[in-house]
Structures are given as structure tokens and as C-alpha cells.
UniProtKB/TrEMBL annotation:
Pfam family, one: RWD
Cellular component GO terms held in the UniProt record: cytoplasm
Region annotated Disordered, chain positions: 127-150
Domain of life from the UniProt record: Eukaryota
Taxonomic lineage from the root: Eukaryota, Metazoa, Chordata, Craniata, Vertebrata
Family annotation (CDD domains): RWD_IMPACT
Keyword entries, A-Z: Cytoplasm, Repressor, Stress response, Translation regulation
Protein name per its UniProtKB record: RWD domain-containing protein
Protein location: Cytoplasm
Keyword hit for Glycoprotein: no
GO BP field: GCN2-mediated signaling; regulation of translational initiation
Record field: compositional bias (Acidic residues): 137-150
Amino acid sequence: MADVTNPESEGDLQDQIEEVEALSSIYGDEWCVIDEASRIFCIKISNDLEEPKLTACLQIILPHDYPSASPPIYQINAAWLRGPERTKLANSLEDLYVEHVGESILYLWVEKVREFLVDRSLSSETVDQPEKVNMTAEEEVEDDDDDDEDIPDFKTLQLNTEHTHLAITDRRSTFQPHLAPVVTPGQVKMVLGKLYENKKIASATHNIYAYRIYREDKHSFLQDCEDDGETAAGGRLLHLLQILDVRNVMVVVSRWYGGILLGPDRFKHINNCARNILVEQGYTASMDEATKSGAKTKRPKSKKTK
């Protein structure tokens, strides 16, 4: 058995308790305890600007030997944060840790993320620029110019805070699906922004999403996905949408990690959540069937696939 009376471990635990208390006092409602026993916490960070408003969620797990020997395990959740920018921010956090090895680092990390958000907002590359990813060869860039004119009706956004029967819990991890109709990539960003206004969703370990938009004039699809740190989950979710041949819809699956690794089961839960909400909202039926039945399909297994 491990020596639970190790003085160094006791010192680390006391340092963690004091740091968490300080951060909770400093950041108030922005600080969230996800699992105190497993030392999992999350803080919602914003750039403190009126426009453009940028937010990110920093989730951390404190190892038993932090801060004396190990850094916090962290995940940055922000739908707009991709590729080189994500790498740049991660490198800056790791550099800070190296500079302060053996010290409590979380406050410095939070303020570094906030500084990054401010710099990002003030740069010429604003978040309002539409993404141009995974477009087929037929699609033209000018199609995105009209995105901001199409404001989605957020009454149709299905937040599973009210539809808990669709949630899946396994070994303390919880998966919840959300759905919204979308017809432009710009609407995808708006939906994500609306979702992140919900503190519970914003504090999720991962918010995996995928969408498919059918372009009538081009007879082709715009589609994309995001893992949000859950490697390969976004691609699997998009593959599900393709298999079901759904269109003009976006599905987001939020996962709150419970401290126990689920292995491949996590992908099963993500896709099952997504399929369940697609079925409930009628997206798995053919267009004619959906129109006749009021867009409701109750028996998803009636269509056999092999």
C-alpha cells in the first residue's frame, strides 16, 4: 500500500486545498468544482471585453504530487480554438510551469489564458470570420458572406438540461446531447455561443460536435466536426450523421469526465446520445415521412443496416 502519511504528499494536499480556496474566492461563480474527491475543477475565463466576447474553459485535474513534483493535467475547451492557436496557448502554459516548478501555478495559468483571449480579440483575426473548413470543391467562399444574415431560431435548440432522459451515465462520466437546425456555417458558431452561455455545458470536459448542411444549389454538403480534446470523437460523430443521411442539423454531445477511463465505450455513448436526440427530433426519417409524421420517429431500429 502507498504510504498515505508521506510528509511530501500531505504538504501537496495542503497546498492544493489552500490554492483551491483562494481561486474559489477570487473567481466566484466562474470557478466550478466538478469532482472534489478526484480533484477535478473547471474555470470559465473570458476576455473581459464587450465585443468581441471570447470565452474558454480551463479544466484541470490535480495529481497527488502537485505542486511539488507534477504539473496539473489540463484541458482547454473552446470551440473557436484550433490548430496553431491551441498549440501556442498550450506551449505558453507549459513554459509558465517550467518557470515555476514546485509552485502553485493555477492562478498564473488562468491569467495567461485571459491574456491570450484579450490578444486574440484585439488581433485582426476576429471570431466573427466564418470558418472555411471541409468544403467541397464546388463551394465558393462568397457563400459565407451571408452567414450573419441568417439568425437561427434558438427556440429550436434542444438543450438536454430539460431532456435528461437522453443523458447517459457510466462510471461517473455523463454524456448529454444537444441539437439545433443549421443551414449556414455562421449559424454553427451562433449555436456554440448560445450553448456556452449555459454554465454547466461550458464546464463540460468535452463538447464534441458535428454538422451537415445540404446545399441545394450545389447538390453537395458542407460538413465539419470538432473533437474538443476527445480524440477521434468528432470524426465518429460526423460519420454517424453521414450514415443516417441527416441534413441541416448540428449535434453537440457534452461529456463530463468522472475520473474513470471508459476506453472505447466513450465513443459508443457519444454516438448513442447523438442518435437518440436525432431520432427524437425526427431527423432519421426520410423527408416525406418526417413531413407526414410531424418530424417524429419513435423506432430507430426499424431501418436495418448491415
